[in-house]
C-alpha cells in the first residue's frame, strides 16, 4: 500500500544549527539552541496535556525567557526577535531536497504537518526552497491542538482525503512518531544525531533511518 507521506518540519527537514550564530550572540554558546528547543517542546506538551492552547511561536518566546532566566542571562528584545525570526530562515538538511525529489519521482504524495503556524510554515519552506515538493502545507494551529495530540494527524488525513491508516508521518522526534502511531497512522523515524525512539511506545515504526535519504529508500522498498 502506498501511503501519503506527511513530514514534520523543524529538525526533520530543517536544520536548527542555522540558529547557532544568534544563540552565540545572545548566550555566548551556540549549543544553547538545543536546550531552548527541548524546553519549547516540553512547554508545548504541557499546553497540550492541560488543554491550554498557545501558538507555537509564543511558546518559543516563553521558552527563550525560561532558558535565559535559568542561565542568568539578560535577553534583550532584539536578541529574542532575531532568534524567533531566524526560525523562518532555517536551511534544510543537505540530503532533504534530493530525498524528497526521489520520493516525488517515484509517484508518492507528500505534505507537511507542523506545530508552527501556517504563516511560519509557509515562510520556512519557501526560504528552504522546498515548497514545490509538497502538495499541502498543514499546521496544527488550524485545529488549536499541537502534536502529538490526535487532532492534527486526523486533520491531515481529512485534508488529504485519505483514511488515517493511509498516512505515514515522518519525523525526527519520538513523541511525534508516537502520536501518529497511537492514532492509527504509520510512521517513519529519522534518527538524526541525538535522536532515539522511546522504548515505551508500541508499536514501533516500520521504517527507521539515519537521515531522510535512508528513510526514503526504505519507504520505497517497503511500499513499492
Explained architecture:
With 224 residues, this protein is of the alpha/beta class. The protein folds into 2 domains: 4-15 and 90-223, Rossmann fold (3-Layer(aba) Sandwich), CATH 3.40.50; 16-89, Orthogonal Bundle (DNA polymerase, domain 1), CATH 1.10.150. Helix content is 46%, strand content 12%. The chain has a 6-stranded parallel beta sheet, with helices on both faces. The protein starts with a strand and ends with a helix. The mean pLDDT is 96.
Can you tell me the CATH class of the largest domain? Alpha Beta
CATH architecture of the largest domain: 3-Layer(aba) Sandwich
Q: How would you classify the helix and strand content by structural class?
A: alpha/beta
Question: CATH superfamily membership of the largest domain, which one?
Answer: HAD superfamily/HAD-like
Distance linking N and C termini? 8 Å
CATH topology descriptor of the largest domain? Rossmann fold
Q: Detail the poorly predicted runs.
A: none
How many distinct folded domains? 2
Shape: globular
Number of helices: 9
Side by side, the strands of the main sheet go 3-2-1-4-5-6
Strand fraction equals: 5-15%
Helix content: 40-55%
Amino acid at each position: 500500500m502506498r501511503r501519503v507521506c506527511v513530514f514534520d518540519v523543524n529538525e526533520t527537514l530543517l536544520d536548527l544549527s542555522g540558529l547557532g550564530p544568534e544563540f552565540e550572540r545572545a548566550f555566548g554558546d551556540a549549543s544553547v539552541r538545543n536546550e531552548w528547543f527541548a524546553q519549547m517542546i516540553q512547554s508545548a506538551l504541557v499546553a497540550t496535556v492541560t488543554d491550554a492552547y498557545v501558538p507555537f511561536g509564543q511558546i518559543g518566546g516563553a521558552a527563550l525567557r525560561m532558558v535565559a532566566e535559568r542561565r542568568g542571562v539578560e535577553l534583550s528584545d532584539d536578541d529574542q526577535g532575531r532568534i524567533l525570526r531566524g526560525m523562518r530562515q532555517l536551511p534544510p538538511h543537505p540530503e532533504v531536497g534530493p530525498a524528497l525529489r526521489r520520493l516525488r519521482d517515484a509517484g508518492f504524495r507528500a505534505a507537511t504537518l507542523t506545530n508552527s503556524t501556517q504563516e511560519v510554515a509557509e515562510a520556512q519552506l519557501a526560504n528552504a526552497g522546498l515548497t514545490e515538493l509538497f502538495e499541502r502545507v498543514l499546521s496544527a494551529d488550524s485545529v488549536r491542538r499541537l502534536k502529538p495530540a490526535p487532532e492534527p494527524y486526523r486533520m491531515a488525513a481529512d485534508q488529504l482525503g485519505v483514511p488515517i491508516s493511509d498516512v505515514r508521518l515522518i519525523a525526527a522526534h519520538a513523541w511525534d512518531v508516537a502520536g501518529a502511531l497511537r492514532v492509527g497512522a504509520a510512521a517513519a523515524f529519522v534518527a538524526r544525531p541525538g535522536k532515539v525512539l522511546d522504548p515505551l511506545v508500541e508499536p514501533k515504526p516500520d521504517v527507521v533511518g539515519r537521515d531522510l535519504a535512508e528513510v526514503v529508500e526504505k519507504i520505497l522498498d517497503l511500499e513499492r
